[in-house]
Amino acid sequence: MRTINLATAFSGIGAIEHAFKRMNIPHRIIFACDIDKFVKQSYFANYEINEENWYDDIHDINTKKYKGKVDLLVGGSPCQSFSSVGKRKGLNDERGNLIFSYINLIKQIEPEIFIFENVKGLLTHNKGETWKIVEQGFKSTGYKIYYDILNAKDYGIPQHRERLFLIGFKDKKRKFKFPEPQELKYKVKDFLIDKADEKYYLGEKGRKFVEERYNHNYKVQINADIMMCQKANQQFNWHGDFIREEGRPVEEKYFLSDAVKKYVLSSGTKNFYQKPETDLEIARPLLSTMASMHRAGVDNYYTYGDRIRKLTPRECLRLMGFDDSFKIVVSDTQMYKQAGNSIVVNVLMALLREIYKEELDEIKEN
What does the domain layout of the chain look like in residue ranges? Predict the structure, then answer.
C-alpha cells in the first residue's frame, strides 16, 4: 500500500495517528496542530514529527507549504459550544467559530480526503439552524460530503460515546458508506489493569458521594459493562465511571488461609476462651515479640470491605482505543483531560477500513 500523507488540526493526542499505527498502514505525518502545550508533550513522545511541522494555532499553519501534499486531513474542533453539558453558545463562541477555520484550511491545502469530528449536538443546536450554516460551509469546499452519528460501543469499545463524523472527498465520483455497527464483544472490565495504585481509591467523602449518586443514577456508574461518555474532567468531579473492588491491596502474605481463618473465628482455643472478634475499634494489646504475634488466635484481625476507585489514566486510554504502546509523559490531571478530549481510535479504524478498502483488500490478496 502507498504511504499516506497525513495531517491533523486540533490534533490532541493523535487518535488518527494511533489508528494508522495500530492498522500498520504506511503513513507520514505532514503537519499537526494543537494549542495545548501538554498535548504537544504527549504527541512528540508518541509520533514522529519535526518541530517545523508542528503548529500551536490553526491560523499559523503555512498552507502554501502543504497545498496539494496531504492525502488525509483529520480534525475535531472544540465541541463545548455545542455540547449538551456546555453553555451551547454555538457559533457566537470563539471556539465554535473554529469550525470555519478548519473549513478554510481544507480550501487552502486541498487534501484528497478530510474527516471532521464533533459532538452530535452540533446537528440540533439552535433547532438545527447552526448545522445548516456549518453544512453549507463544508459544501462550499466543493467536496462530496457524507455525515453520520457513530457510537464507540458499535465499534469494539464499551463506551457510550456518540459523535458526528463528516467525511469529504475531493473526487466527487467517490462512493462511500459508513461502517456497519458490530456486535460488542468486550466489557469495561476487560480493559482494567490488574492492580491499581492506592492513590486512585476514593476516600470516605468521595465514596459516599459516588454511592449516593449511584443509587439515584445521577451521572455515576459503578462496575458498568459499558462506560458513559468519557469526559476531560470525569475523574475529578466524582462523576462518571468507577470501579468497586473487594478488599484492599495488601500483600497476599498478610491474609489468612482458609484453615487459619476458620481457626481464628472459632469459639476459642484451648488456652484462650475469648469471644472471637474482628475489626475492633480499640486493638487488643500487642504481644511483646514479633515472633509470638498472631500465634494465640486472639490477636488483632481485620477484614476489608468493598472499595471504590477511579479509572486510571491507562484504563481511560484503553477505553479510547489507545493500546499500551502509547507513552504517558504528563501528569494524571493532563492525561485524563487528553483522553477525554480525544476521538475513539477504534471508530477511526473502522472509517479507515472503508476509506481505503480497495487498497487494504489488495494487501490481503498479496
Answer: 4-184+326-365, 194-248+306-311, 254-303
